[in-house]
Amino acid sequence: MKIQTKYHGEIDIEEKDILRFIKGIPGFPDEKKFILLGLPEQDMFSIMQSVNTPDLAFVLTSPFRFIEKYEFTLDEHTLEQLEIENQEDISIFSIVTIQDPFEKTTTNLQAPIILNVKNNQAKQVILNDTEYKIKHSLFEKAVKG
Q: CB of 119 within 8 A of CB of 106?
């Protein structure tokens, strides 16, 4: 099927590659289908593009590229909802907010996106009682100088 995207123009996607958010994502409850798209010549960031809304796309990264010990426990409801059977089924992303200059770019560690890679069910989880921030600097050393 063909979709319009914010950064990649019109592309052809396959139904099996669509990520499904059962209840949408916070702030966008009606947006339940997304596709992950790579960015040319780099693998640090990707785009999570809405299948239905061309102008809705989020820049994602793996928080593990920037945070040495990023750890949290998923609640039973989330594990059941996403049909997660073991840790190998999980891929974790965080939403990036690009800043100018780029060294001030942040990522949301308090609300990671959890993906079951076996069935493409996904959910943005809000972590309560955590030291993780909504705007965690990706390049702390560069920002502090």
A: no
